[in-house]
Fold this sequence. Notes:
Blueprint: H1 8-12, E1 21-22, E2 25-26, E3 28-29, H2 40-52, H3 62-82, E4 89-92, H4 95-107, E5 115-119, H5 124-131, E6 139-143, E7 145-146, E8 151-152, H6 154-160, E9 165-171, H7 183-192, E10 196-200, H8 212-215, E11 219-223, E12 233-237, H9 239-244, H10 269-287, H11 302-329, E13 335-337, E14 349-354, H12 359-368, E15 371-372, E16 374-376, H13 381-387, E17 396-400, H14 407-422
Parallel strand pairs: 3-15, 5-6, 5-9, 9-10, 10-11
Antiparallel strand pairs: 1-2, 4-12, 7-8, 11-12, 13-14, 14-17, 16-17
Helix pairs in contact: 2-10, 3-10, 4-5, 10-11, 11-14
Amino acid sequence: MKDFRFDLDHVREQFPCLCKTVNGLPAAFLDGPGGTQVPRSVVEKINDYMFYHNANAHGCFVTSLETMALQQEARETLAAFFNCSASEVIFGESSSTNNFKLVFAIARDLKEGDEVIITDIDHESNRSPLRTLEERGIIVKSVRVDLSTYTLDMEDYKSKLSDKTKVVAINWAANANGTITDVKPMIELAHKVGALTIIDAVHYAAHQVIDVKDIGTDFLVTSAYKFFGPHMGVMYAKHETLEKIRTLRVLADDNTMPPEKFETGTPNFEHICGCAAAVDFIADIGKRHEAYFPEELKGLSGKRKDIVAGMLAIDAYEAPMAKKLRTELAKIPGLKLYTSPEGLPKTSTVSFTIQGRNAHDIAEFLAARGIFVWDGDFYAIEITNHVLKLEEQGGLLRIGLAPYNTMEDIDRTIEAVEDFVKQ
Length: 423
């Protein structure tokens, strides 16, 4: 990639929130891992549906027909995002809800003594649904984290796999610190013992290209509000796998075809439209930067090409800012980064602690300067509170980048953390 230049002005003008100030200072929205800001086009799409197309599905009148067409159009847009077919895209209330519905459906065919695997680095949205199966006699095993690299211990994973393993739930990118896991070989090993795989891509989806066909997973969960959309979960389900699962439905014996068999009740049509608009926003970024990625886009076409280009451009823009943040923070006395070594894949999320200081106090100090960051365990409870034992000092301080952030945001944040330490 030569002479990459990100069209920052075009991106930032899509976000009305960026005019916000705090104590006379411009707001720096570094809270993306908890949910990104939303571009104007997403809100306009939601409003357009509510004003002009609002109806329930399966009617013979125009707004109902428009609703069904918009829902199908959204499935096709998210299919281009995942690289799957539209019939493999499922909309739900949230990733947590989708995970619970999925696990409880799978559990209908599990028996006492069966085993499932989770990991210590996961968000509880991915861990808790499977942990609840222990009360049914299902054995739950959790893969350790190598604390020298903050990556999953592959040898520990292999040792926990067996012919009794029925489900493997893996985090693709850790929302606690941005660690990216190479999920493809883990999925392949799981399939060799006949296990189903569930990939948590909630954090990953905002920063990297998703290709479900390449990694071969059975299921993958995301949350649209983590990539510029409304609060809604969007899940990929491999068609042939979902066909076999007995989902929980209002009509208990109705095992209708995918994807409707997983979607309970009346869908949130307005947010479904917003999810599609969020992906279209990414595709628009891609159209403006495709010339920088000729090799990566070879063989791609249409919306999939635009989306991939958009994600590559976002990553190319965020990576240098994240590296500067990690490099400069590491120089601050008493500050400890919780990140994989340089050269290992990671998102643009940076987490740290400061010796003797509570993470919440750091977050409050930065907030007063208009710098929005997160503190705590972020529902990655096992790694943060039990493995790293950071609960008493308020967990981690987490900074996350999005394509509307600037190098000025990074410089302000570094300076503010330095000032906090000097206090």
